[in-house]
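May I ask for whichever protein you like with its backbone structure tokens?
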Amino acid sequence: MLNPFAFLSGKRLALPVFLLILIGAVSASEAPENTVTVKHALGKARISASPTRVVSLYQGATDTAVALGIEPVGAVESWTEKPFYRYIRPALTDVRVLGLETQPDLESIAWLDPDLIVAARNRHQAIYPLLRQIAPTVVIDDVYDFKTLLTLMAKATGKEQVGQCLLRHWQARTRDFRSRIQRKLGDAWPQEVAILSFRADHARIYYGGFARTVLDELGFSAPSAHRKDDWGIKLTSQESIPAMDAEAIFLFMQEDPAVKRTFREWTDHPLWQNLESVGSGEVYPVNPVLWNMGAGILAANLMLDEVYQHYGLANTLPTADLAC
């Protein structure tokens, strides 16, 4: 098994795509007897009990495939660090790039002759009827629900024992972290934390998303003003800096000169200096790929490694020791 820690568009489809889809539909009608039925966000899929040609159409699915010991035959390119994120790139040595997550190349997918496609509702609902004609397709409802994704993919790929092992390891780590940080912070736990990002022309506060999903499970809470059913908010004026306040801040941004300039301008402002977390020295820079883009069980574990480090806690179950 691979060791993951060793390191609808509006365009008209080309005619070959329809021919390939037709071929796939004929093949699907001759499904082998040894199959498993998997319920997912858009229905059910009958899948070969041990699919070997897996296609991943979003980042969390690529992360999860690697965690399960699967090298996809094709995957959409990463949002940054192209073609694939550095933390999983060593396990993706022979993978065809299938275009953008928001506009995957259907013709290339069909030519790969996959036996399983993993997609996301918010990205691929419109093309799901075409995908399922190419190969059995499972669709995740919430791209940030990495544990449900892991369970779904483990069942779909015949890797349920590996998936259960990964979940047990994660649960053991979260229990360990909660115990250690509660002992360290005492009455100051649970701590209210904000998740911020700087861009070239604005700043962002994240109310939801992958990082908030993980932090919630670790026991952190959000400031009352950040407890909203939305992804977050864009801030274009430095007068909005007080809205960022929290007992601690996790902050990520890209290595880009324009972004760094925005960061300097905002953090030099007196309003930034007045934030509680700035005054207490609890502003923690974090990896943007792990905290905002990876969206899988590997990214969650590596994100937790960073949290252990920022709080100076003993990390007795580090990600690198995972063996499933």
In short: The chain has a mean pLDDT of 91.
